[in-house]
Specification:
Chain lengths: 226, 226
């Protein structure tokens, strides 16, 4: 059997070449001493809120500040001790939704699809910060309540990476790439948004539905592909 | 640029050939008149219980029978009007878990990963019916309670197909195949268990986490691949 006459899309060819190169680089013998290999981390992003300074005052009282519960993988980001209750249009609610700090210009609630259905909110899949036209909800804190007019989303799966890792993979900021999680239910997540910034460490964020779908806690390996 | 010297795995070659053949068959002009094309259906399987005749009597009373709430896609299968409450080890519970009929030799509870975590049950991914070594739970009905010693699983994603469709795709019973769901969060589910039986209609079952992960309700197309 000969394969020469099968036309191969350039994209597919590039993927194979990249994979071969990576494999060569990652096996001991043939690799140049000190060859760089990124440390790919995949983390699950549970439901959370990003909060504006104004809403922080309303929900937690005048002069309130976020305090660190746990530092996250991205430098400077943290899970706060503060949590809120998120209430949907049919008065269904989810308690103890954790705030991620530091505060941001606009408040935003990131839910999984399962959460959104439970609350009765038709939350669209959006990159963080793209709140235009998204639904709102009621948020309750210990000192008050705010009505968000928009900002309830399912965060689009994405990968944070510094420029050196973007170079390694051959990815650009804004490009969609693929994440393969190998487990008892191996899954290839396509349309993973690539976000490149010198402040970032290499880390993929998927939501709890996605993590459960691929059984991330029991995964044996993960890889990023064009 | 020439691609002739790139060795291509046979598996990948076969995939491409199959895809090209399918595309040719599915576009009007070149296809032979009456060419067969399977009707691929992907459905979400929400949490549910399969019940044994004995447990039916205990939970719903002596002489109780399942009654049809809604017929399912697979011939003879139905969602029953009867529901139960499933209770985990830390007394957390999920109410209104629907029973699927007809009754089966052994009771089984199929949950999503999100459900299992909410209940505090470490449910493994298993094909339906493979209950050995799986955790149990307490099930409560209107007439009584049963303690299941085992049978709480996350159902392994699978595709039901009749032999004609298995022939069309070139799949065997027990083989793992791939499902691609094209949407705003396109996902390739690998390790989809292929179940071939003359009684089946062609239908993929994924759980609610998987359906949310790929935004199945808003998918534009689905395809099965080797």
């Amino acid at each position: 059997m000969t394969v020469m006459n099968i036309p191969m899309p350039r994209e597919q060819l590039e993927r194979i070449v990249r994979q071969v190169v990576r494999e060569r680089l990652s096996t001991g013998g043939a690799a140049p001493v000190g060859a760089y290999s990124p440390n790919l981390v995949v983390n699950t992003s549970a439901r959370h809120m990003h909060i504006s300074p104004e809403h922080l005052q309303t929900l937690f009282g005048h002069g309130a500040e976020l305090t660190v519960y746990r530092w996250l993988y991205q430098p400077g980001e943290f899970a706060a001790e503060q949590t809120v209750t998120v209430i949907g249009p049919r008065r269904r609610m989810i308690e103890k939704v954790r705030i991620l700090g530091p505060a941001r210009p606009a408040s935003q609630i990131e839910l999984s699809g399962t959460d959104a259905i439970a609350l009765g909110i038709d939350a669209p899949v959006r990159p963080s910060g793209q709140a235009s036209g998204t639904p709102g909800c009621v948020v309750m804190g210990p000192a008050g309540v705010v009505q968000l007019d928009q900002g309830v989303i399912r965060a689009e799966r994405h990968v944070h990476m510094p420029p050196a890792d973007a170079d390694y993979y051959g990815f650009q900021d804004g490009q969609y790439v693929r994440l393969r999680v190998i487990s008892s239910c191996t899954t290839m997540f396509e349309r993973v948004l690539c976000r490149v910034d010198p402040k970032f460490l290499l880390e993929v964020h998927i939501d709890t539905d996605e993590a459960n779908a691929c059984d991330l806690p029991n995964a044996t390996s993960v890889e990023l592909l064009a």
